Structures are given as C-alpha cells and as structure tokens.
Amino acid sequence: MDFELTVEQRALRKEVIAFAQQELGRDAAADDREGRFPREDWRRCAEFGVLGWPVPEEYGGRGFDPLTTIVALEALGYGCRDNGLVFAVNNHLWGCAIYLLLHGTEEQKQRYLRPLSAGTLIGAHALSEPEAGSDVLSMTTTAERDGDGYRLHGTKCFISNGPVADVFVVLARTGDGARAQDQLSAFVVTSDMPGVVKARELPKMGLRTTPMGIVEFDGTPVPAANLLGREGAGYPVFTSTIEWERSFMFAPQVGAMERILETSVQQANSREQFGRTIGTFQAVSHPIADMKIRLELARTLLYRIGWLKREGRLALLEATMAKIFISESLVQTAMGAVEVHGARGYLTDDGIERELRDALGGPIYAGTNAVQRGILAELLGVRGALSSGGPR
C-alpha cells in the first residue's frame, strides 16, 4: 500500500481548501447562534461539485474514486469552519446518495442522482425512531401494500437534514417473517408526497447549521417503483452502506483535527505567561503533541479504508474502528484546544468552543460508539458481544 497522494490528488486538496476558506462559513458564528441552514453555502458547494464527488459523471457527479473522495472530504473539513454545513453534506452523500448508487435502478439513478449532485434536491436518511435508534430491527414504521404501491405509516426522529430535505431514504417494516432481517424494506420518499409531515425541528448543542427534525408519514402513498432493492431486502441494503457512512462521514473530522492543531500551535507560540510563551510549558506542549499523534493515526486508518474501497474490498472492520477512533480523537483534540486557549477558548466569539460542541456529536451519530465497540468485538469473534442490542 502506498498512501502518497498523486499529483492530481494534491492539486485537488489545494483547490478544495482554497474554495472552502474563501467561499464557505463566512457567517458560521451567526448561523450557529441562530441554528440557520446556510443555503447560499449549500449552493456554492453544489456549484463546486462537492455534492457529487462520489457520483459517476453519467449521473451528474465528479466520479471520484473512494480514496480521492476521502482526500477531498478531508480538505473540506480542514478549510470550512462551519462543521454543520460539512455534516449536512455528509448526510446528503452517505445517508441518501450512496443508497441510490449502490442499490438504485437505472431509472432511480437518472431521476434522483443528477439533482442531488446539483444541489437542487437535498437528501436525508430517515432511519431512527423514538424507540429504535441503533436497534434498527425493532423499528415500527410500516409500509403496507396498497394496490401497486405501499402506504407508509410511522414517525422518524433525529433526522439530520430532515427539516430541509427533499428526498428521504426510509426504512420501514413490510412483513412479519420468521427472520427479523427479512421484515424491512428501503424506499425513496420525496417530501412532496401526500402525508409527509416535517413535524418539528429539534434544537441541539452543536452542528446547529445542520437542521435536525422529526418526520412523520401519515399514510404516505409510495409507488412500488420507489423500492430500493426488492421487498424485504431493506436490512442488507442498510448494512451494505454502513462501512461508507462510518468512515467517509468522518473524513472531514480529520481535516478539522488538523485545523484545530494548527490553531493550537499558533496560540502556544504567541501567548505569553510568566515571561515566556505558553508552548514552553509541558502542560501545553504535550497535549499538542498528542493532537498530532491522533491526527496521523486517524489519517492513516482513513486512507487505508479509501484504498480498500477503491480496490473493491470490504472494510467493515476498519470502518468501525475509524468511526470510534476519529470521533473520539476529535473530541479530545477540541477539548485540548479549549484548554490551550484558556479563557479565550471558552468564549463564544472565538470559535474554539464551537469546535468542541460540534465534536461531541461524533461519538453518537452514525451509531453510538458503545454499539460500535460491540460490533467490533463481534467482528473479532467475541461471541454474544451484541447480546444487549445493536445492529448485526
């Protein structure tokens, strides 16, 4: 394995960073305070091609291979200070577009991927329910047969992008077969269908520029043509996307870790106490050294996943480790940055405290890290590791 970036990838990285620094997050602090989705920045991302990076060119995307996509996402996370905007992009790509890429029919790809890549449609993943989060198999949303189609009934909650989404990938129960894995189906549902109700937006601690909400389906008529895969294949459709979500969604966090590290080094070299810069004190310099260690380990793990997916190989074990390690490393790095900046790091106008608030969601979304550790243990052969619940 050679993770040295190609000339084209290095050029892309510079291009993405320049774009993100110059065009995105200009009003990040104000948007965060107001919990406002930055539609103009979303439009800029679409025009630059961000929303179609992994989508083949014949469907309106850029056609990046997996490793190049990771490089681009890492650069986006480094250059854009609005972590919520980047999170919205990731939900759009890995909660919606990837499902269509992997399981959509040709007609579904033609109908949805081009406008998703162009940003005229915003995608979301309607999975979690009030009583079913990580335990996907216990969901109660149903899709009952109705003539040539289905009627969708149920409530989905904690849906990132939900309040602004136009297209949802929805998992619902379509049967009561002997195996729980055969009872679910996946559907493409658009927000303009009758009975789709964006019930309520949910305020949250961080990532405030990614709207999160409750979405209800009140007898929503869904054509059979909107099935992703066959009826009863919803669970394998879902699990086939897990390694993409658990790893690619966290690529921007590696870029954010590098940005926070550089900010901390600058603070350590410029802030003086007791007649010398604070970086000369081990209490400051050692946590910064730890930031660098976490950054390089995270990047190596992430690039390995990109290489594996480019080669068409499975990366579930690596993706599960990446989700755990990168999300927790970002929290540790952001917390360290607050401490390095002292009182300034606690102020809401400095941006450091926002980095920490945004980071705290990482160990929770895309499957809590407690569940991920159970999955990892099971992948390693520990029998009964998931006996307390969680997706298998």
Describe this structure in words.
With 392 residues, the chain is an alpha+beta fold. It has 13 helices and ten strands. It has helices at 7-23, 28-34, 39-48, 66-79, 83-103, 106-118, 234-248, 251-270, 282-310, 316-341, 343-346, 352-359, 369-379; strands spanning 123-126, 142-146, 149-160, 167-173, 184-190, 196-201, 212-223, 227-228, 272-273, 276-277. A hairpin with a 2-residue loop joins β2 and β3. α1 (7-23) packs parallel to α4, α7 (234-248) packs parallel to α10 and α8 packs parallel to α10. Mean pLDDT is 94; it is low at 387-392.
Structural descriptors:
four-stranded antiparallel beta sheet; globular; 15% strand; four-stranded mixed beta sheet
Helix-strand blueprint:
Layout: H1 7-23, H2 28-34, H3 39-48, H4 66-79, H5 83-103, H6 106-118, E1 123-126, E2 142-146, E3 149-160, E4 167-173, E5 184-190, E6 196-201, E7 212-223, E8 227-228, H7 234-248, H8 251-270, E9 272-273, E10 276-277, H9 282-310, H10 316-341, H11 343-346, H12 352-359, H13 369-379
Parallel strand pairs: 1-4
Antiparallel strand pairs: 2-3, 3-7, 4-5, 5-8, 6-7, 9-10
